[in-house]
Structure formats: C-alpha cells, structure tokens
Design a protein that fits this description.
Arc Repressor Mutant, subunit A; 6-stranded antiparallel β-sheet; 11 strands
Length: about 280
C-alpha cells in the first residue's frame, strides 16, 4: 500500500478546517488493512477500484464518495487491485460547519454515502473534479472550492473547540473536570458532543488515550504500568482492557511486534498480514 500526505496548508479554508489530506493506493493485488480509531472523520473519494469495509453483516461495498470515521475499534478495509482514493480529514466539530444534520446520525461502523449529507450536484462535482486533477496543486484547488461552496456557518461553538483542546492537547481525561473548566454541566457537554462531534466526550477521551499509547516507545512488559500512569489510568489493568477493546490485541503483543509499531508510525494504518496469528 502506498500512503502519501498532500500539503493542505497552502489553502486558507483547508489549513483552517482540515487535519490532513492523503493519497492512498495499492498495486495489482487485493489489499486488506486495519484502520485505527483516531477521533477524526474523512470524506473519501474513490478514484479507481472498489473499497469494502468489514462489518457484522460481512464486507460492505463503499460508495465512491463517502464519509468514514469515528470508529471505536480497529476495523478492516479491503481495497481491490489498482485502487486509489483521496481522503480529506476533519476533526468532527469542523465538519459540522458544512452539514445541516447532527453528526450523531452518521454510521460509525460503515461509510455514510455523501449523497445523504450534501447536495447531489456538489458531491458529483467534487468527484469529477478530483478525477481530472493531474497534480497536488490542482487537487487542493478543487478541495478548497468544495469547502468554499459548502461552508454553512463560520462560527464554531467555542465550548466544543475548547473541550477538544483540553482532551487532545492538555490531556485532561475526566468529563467532570472538562465540564468544570468550561463552567457547564456534564450533561450539557455530552449534548454538545452528540450534536457537534457525533460521539460522547468519554469515547473521544478513550480514543485519544489509545492513540497516544500506540505512539508510546516501549520495549518491555514491565513498562506497561508506566504507560498507564502516563495516560492517567487508575491502573495497568484498566489500560490493558481499553487497549484490547479498541485494538483487538493486548498492549504487550503490540509493543513486541516491531512491524505493527512501524506501520502505525509510517501511515497510521496497519497491513492486515502484520497481525499474523496474534489477533
């Protein structure tokens, strides 16, 4: 699989609202990889081939332009031979500025057809424009145009952006503490997250903790306690339970598998065959 980040900082709206833009492709063979929970949402535009997501109902084919993310467990995705996609990443509360509906209604274990969220003509225009692009500059011009045409409101509820900052940057992992800092009740905070983020603050906290754990340098089992306390877990057992629930393997197996660690560091995904027989 080839993973390539595209510089999105050259365009004003993209620099303000996007987390990343990347070009993902494979060669002549079918490829299965594991997508890791990261607390983000992406508009995925499939330029070539087909993508399927593994759900409880089996492999589900994804629309050519769909919204995907906010998963809370590792999920399998399968790319057909000669596959290529452009992915446009958002923090959920920024994507909310472009949507009429609350993000709570989006599918968490499967892609949501973008036709259900945007005007059909806008989705078709985005797809056709990206298909014609010959270089990164042209890609970013068309993505910027899509954002300009579909921005509904420019003002974001400051309580949401502040809460997101407290979780992801200040490492505050208790809902009551975040609510207290923002001078609102925990119920109000949860309601704000349901409307503007699509998951609860508790779920985002869990995702962010595990994401940080995946990047934590560790080489021996004895250091698991160090990771747990670094992430403000009460104990190692609680950390190990959350990790296995989200990733599907124990933290010990993850840290001792150099291929998994390398894959995540390189492109925030895992090759399915990297798991071998450990998952």
């Amino acid at each position: 699989m080839k993973f390539r980040l595209i510089n999105h900082k050259t365009k004003p709206l993209s620099a303000k609202y996007l987390t990343d833009v990347y070009d993902l492709s494979n060669g002549n063979n079918e490829f299965i990889y594991c997508c890791v929970p990261n607390g983000e949402l992406s508009i995925t535009v499939i330029l070539e081939g087909d993508c399927h997501i593994k759900t409880d109902k089996g492999w589900q084919r994804q629309p050519n332009v769909h919204l995907y993310g906010l998963i809370d467990k590792v999920q399998l995705l399968k790319m057909s031979p000669n596959y290529r996609e452009i992915s446009i990443g958002f923090y959920p509360h920024y994507l909310q500025l472009f949507l009429n509906d609350a993000l709570l209604s989006t599918n968490k274990t499967n892609g949501t057809d973008l036709f259900d969220l945007f005007k059909k003509e806008e989705v078709n225009k985005l797809y056709e424009n990206l298909c014609q692009c010959k270089n990164d500059e042209a890609l970013m011009d068309k993505i910027e145009l899509f954002m300009k045409d579909n921005l509904l409101i420019e003002s974001l509820d400051k309580r949401i952006s502040a809460a997101h900052h407290l979780i992801t940057k200040e490492n505050i992992y208790k809902v009551d503490n975040i609510s207290s800092i923002l001078n609102i009740t925990p119920t109000t905070l949860r309601n704000l997250f349901n409307q503007h983020v699509g998951i609860s603050p508790k779920d985002l906290i869990k995702i962010h903790r595990i994401k940080k754990a995946l990047d934590f340098p560790l080489t021996c089992e004895e250091s698991l306690t160090q990771v747990a306390y670094h992430l403000n877990y009460f104990d190692q057992a609680h950390f190990c339970k959350d990790f296995k629930d989200s990733i599907g393997i124990s933290p010990k197996k993850y840290y001792l598998n150099s291929q998994l660690y390398s894959d995540f560091s390189d492109f925030q995904h895992w090759r399915f065959d990297s798991f071998g027989n450990i998952i």
